[in-house]
Amino acid sequence: MNTRSLKSRSLLLVGFVLAGLVLVNIISVRVFGRIDLTSKDLFTLSDASRQLVGSLDDKIAVTAFFTEDLPAPYNNYRRAVLDQLNEYKAYSNGNLAYEFINPDTEEGERDAQQQGIAPVQVQVVEQDKFEAKRAYMGLAFHYEDRKEVMPVVQNLTSLEYDISAAIKRLTTTSKQKIGFLTGRGEPGLQELQGVQHTMAGQYDLATVDVSEGKAVPSDIAALIVMAPGTTIPETHQYQIDQYLMRGGKVAFLLNRIQASLQERFGREFDTGMDDMLASYGLRVNADIVRDARCANISIVQQSFGFNVQSQVPFPLLPLASEFNRENMIVKDLKAMVLFFVSSVDTVDMSARRLRGELLLSSSNRSGRMTKVFMINPLSDYSPAEFSEQHIPLAWLVTGEFTSAYASKEIPADSTTEGIVQGEKLLKSPESRIVLIGDGDFARDAYQGSNDNVNFLANLIDYLVDDAGLITIRSKDVTQPPLEQVEDGTKNLLKYGSLLVPPFIVLGYGMIRWRTRQARRKTLEAA
User: How open is the CA angle 26-27-30, to the nearest 5 degrees?
Assistant: First the structure.
């Protein structure tokens, strides 16, 4: 009797467990939920992505062309894309739908290529040898009569940004225009391919020429003054000033010292804009910041008659990572490599009723080179040369700016033999200026970190009030470095992982054995 009762209770328990599992599966199909245990919710959609997809007013159809049974690491790409699209769908209020197609047939390949998705070659290890295999790993987005294509998913760390940017481009009817000042030796757009690759889908990038009395065009949402190679004349400064007075936003990326590693020498450079910047509460100092936390450079030295190439730390290329974590422009950046950067300061901010935020500074072991700028990668620096802490390298200033020409005459333009035309404006509406003492950090030839371009991209987003994608672009889903522990802790963890599991199994076995023995004695006594 007792045995039958025990079996009945066991069967009833199994039945309840199975029913519970079925119920949980039914609920999970209908209710979306996810637990993200990472410290910064790296695998959860950002608020900007949720708002973007939640505000859709029409259907977006996503077609994912993915070859199945791909080798590692590509076999994880399909799963990652599927998980990401599931999250977008969950927050889209029914306005996003997707399907996966395996283009393993001639018709499937034709459909993929008609959508603008071409096959890529991936390395496959089969029968102990490398072979190349054709694979499709692309996405096509359709919204109304428009289409966006991601020809290949090749970077999972930027997957959310790529998808959100594609949706934003689809749903935005017109792009804002970003102007880069030209005509005084500034780098051309052809030297900013990294910037164009990151920003071109979201903005139209254009050069702006203010010579011969031309004003900054009214359709420029933000103006970038980047590394002028010759002094900016008064007439050009006036046009920049008046653009700011009309409510424009400006970023000044300036080289105060023109330095060359090849020439091993640097010299002061007069941008001509010191007075104008001072009227906005800003100043670039005539110095080069050195930092013990720095990037390495390659040098070639003679050793026993041979040329030996080696990597040496170069303090004049700071690896800047002291960001203002309260400001969205830089809060998620990791480190930028700066090139002969000068320090920047604010001037009488409170008197001008302006607000300033320090965006970036040097480390707690830094210093400044002034007056004589001899550049030697093998210089032996003393501790005293790194005695300063947190030297300002980039500032953001917001407020209503007073014109630098409020008490000056409008400058004459000799190239047009007359006066720059237009009524002079004396006060700006609420606007924004960013100043950094390095004009080269975003150029293709100088990029030492992905965050160099991310900084400029975030900066542009912020200037034009399009801050939504900043938090996504800077998201870092790379594996963090392992935490360093003491040797004693290492040994404890190592031997603990070897010995503890067997003891747990033995202990559980002993408890089970004793329980069975006690149950048998109870049954025999009955």
Answer: 95
Prediction pTM value: 0.70
Q: Give the alpha-carbon dihedral of 448, 454, 460, 463, to 10 degrees.
A: -110
**DSSP state at residue 343:** P
How many other CB atoms are found less than 10 A from the CB of residue 12? 10
Please tell me the chain's helix, strand, coil percentages from 3-state DSSP, rounded to the nearest 5: 35, 30, 40
How far is residue 522 CA from its own chain's centroid? 68
Q: Which two tokens stand for residue 160?
A: 């959310």
Q: What SS3 state is found at 444?
A: helix
Take residue 102 and report the two structure tokens written for it.
């395996």
According to DSSP, the residues that pair with 98 across neighbouring strands are: 62
Per-residue pLDDT tens over the stretch 3-55:
666 667 777 777 888 888 888 777 665 555 566 655 555 567 888 888 889 98
Phi-psi domain of 116 (left: phi exceeds 0; alpha: psi -120 through 50; beta: other) = left
Q: How many C-beta atoms lie closer than 10 Å to residue 395's C-beta? A: 25
What pLDDT digit, counting tens, does each position of 259-310 carry?
A: 988 888 999 999 999 999 999 999 999 999 999 999 998 887 776 667 777 8
Whether the Cβ atoms of residue 68 and residue 78 lie closer than 8 Å to each other:
yes
- 327-342 pLDDT, tens digit per residue, is 888 887 889 999 999 9
Per the listing, tokens 């302006």 go with 354
Q: How far apart are CA 376 and CA 360, in angstroms?
A: 26
Residue 288's φ and ψ, nearest 5 degrees, are -120, 125
- Upstream peptide bond of 119 is cis (omega within 30 degrees of 0): no
Q: What are phi and psi of 375, to 5 degrees?
A: -115, 110
Query: In b/e form, how buried is each residue of 25-36, taking b as 16+ CB within 10 angstroms?
Result: eeeeeeeeeeee
Residues 6+ apart with CB under 8 A from 334: 321, 449, 451, 476
CB–CB of 255/440 below 8 Å? yes
